[in-house]
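S1.2 Input.
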Amino acid sequence: MTVIEGVHADHAATFREVGGRRVVADYGRPERTHRAVRNVVGVCEFGYGVLVVTGEDRVDYVDNAVSNRVPDTDGQGTYALLLDPQGRVETDMYVYNAGERLLVFTPPQNAAELAEDWQGKTFIQDVDIRLATDDFAVFGVHGPKATEKIASVLHQAASPEAPLSFNRGELGDAGVSVVRTDNLAGEESYDVVCGADDAGRVFDTLVNRGLNAVPFGYHTWETLTLEAGSPLFDAEIEGALPNDLGLRNALDFEKGCYVGQEVVSRVENQGYPNSRLVGLTLDTVPDSGAAVCAGDEHVGEITRAVDSPTHEGPIAMASVDWDAPEDGLTVRVDGDGLPADRHALPFVDGSAVSARLPSYE
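S1.3 Output.
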């Protein structure tokens, strides 16, 4: 469940499950909330799973397991993928070097299995992996005024500037780490990480102190990220080949990726993409998994679709064959093939560009 469910309930929140974890769906009037985040700033509690990795070999161990370089400098982080032996994505994660430990943030449904798997493969290395999901709370701060918001409440530290770097400071009397994130909503963004015991006070500070911010839930998060062209784990990333996703920020082409101690082929050697993620506009919102066709030929499927408040109409992301035509596409809705037009990603230009915006160059 969320760390502060009672606080969210006091804000008239409704709830849903994401990856087996209870999170806020919305607080009512999600379209108005969406526009408030796009125009000013909003705060969302995210339901990450969290691993703490300690030991002298912690950086080398995690670096050997994932697709991107793990920083060896305190205060720096990376976004990375864990691949299976066929080179498909098992999970994505953020890895932060916090001095004597690494903090690993994963989709909540993957944290326990990942901790157990990694701990069982440490062999003679000095590494310890601990599941620590219940020890932390993570609040995302997104919007064109996000930097102003953080500056108005953060003490004993400046707002971090480099993507996926973080500074330690205080919000009120609570110690926090503030991460400059990768702008998945297409706006300036930060994650505020605190101990679970401090979560209520930190949330109150972020919403009500300094520059006011609107609380928002996962319904708004999904519309914001789709408008920004950001692939998400559950919808687009899980089980896919990295080259098909166009996630250049998650890949270091100079290193191999490992499963335990077995090297997986370098991502650059997987060949040209078989498919790509594209944007579509339609007259109605199709279900995830709806077939995308060119004439009578099946060329892909919808991964995610929403009614976009900013774009003012239905939009979708789809995984389609690499050589699917630009024009003449249809999407199957209730047995009918409805016209769909290709649209360049992102759908909406915000105050920042998502680091996950697919790139195939």
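S1.4 Remarks. The chain has two domains: 1-273, 274-355.
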